[in-house]
Amino acid sequence: RCHRPVVEMPDLPFLPFCILLGGLGLLCVAFVGAWCQHWRGGFSLDGSARTFNWHPVLMVTGMVVLYGAAALIYRLPPARRGPKLPWKAVHGALALAAFVLAVLGLAAVFRFHNAHGTPNMYSLHSWLGLVTVLLFSCQWVAGFSAFLLPWAPTWLRAFYKPVHVFFGATVLMLSVASCVSGINEKLFFSLKNGTTEYKLLPAEAVFANTLGLLIILFGVLVLGALAQPSWKRPDADSPDSQQVPVQLSG
């Protein structure tokens, strides 16, 4: 019988990849901030269009960059062995920070719409974004209950872990899709009536489209890192993951 060779992913060095990904995440935040500051008038809390500008900044920072960092926390070399509880706490804290920023981002866009009499929740971007945030909130509550509460049974953790991993990647993909669709929607609404039309590709359109590509690249690299076998924490029954029992002397 002919046996097909097993194709494995190349074993990439983690540290250079991590530096690249961290720089890319900071670049995404810098780009969305520069876009809103330079072309959209800056930021305020007065209900004007400058209040809306907090929405893309907070969403990209929270639901893409911070959420991506939370997803990769277990890929750090110190997190691949030894006690897992501290890394669970860091993972949960980063995800919670991302959720808080997302809620503030939603509050900014709802305040802007209500102040100007603009209908809420009518576009595909708004539907997708709200579904993403709601799914993320369910994901965080379920993960906290299953993995951080001490009374969660072992069988429940084992059952829910692959579900948690699957929906974690799903939320990241939905976040990227929400941000990219939001950028495109904002350009269509803004680049008209006295400004250079979107179809003529003014500097703002080039800059914002580049931001969208950077966000997509960040999401793809995070998913690639999650799929890298050599960066995964060993299973609970692996010798590398066994914790040394601590003996207390009386």
In short:
By secondary structure, this protein is mostly helical. The chain has one domain (26-231): Four Helix Bundle (Hemerythrin (Met), subunit A).
How does this model look, in words?
Its EC number is 7.2.1.3. Residues 239-250 have a biased composition (Polar residues). It is an enzyme of class 7 (translocase). GO terms for molecular function: metal ion binding; transmembrane ascorbate ferrireductase activity. Residues 20-227 form the Cytochrome b561 domain. The protein has 250 residues and is an all-alpha fold. It has a single domain (26-231), classed as Four Helix Bundle (Hemerythrin (Met), subunit A) (Up-down Bundle), CATH 1.20.120. The protein is built from seven helices and no strands. The protein has helices at residues 14-38, 49-52, 54-71, 85-116, 124-147, 154-190, 203-227. Helix 4 (85-116) runs antiparallel to helix 5 (124-147) and helix 6 (154-190) runs antiparallel to helix 7. The longest helix is centred in the last third of the chain and has 37 residues, at 154-190. The chain is globular.
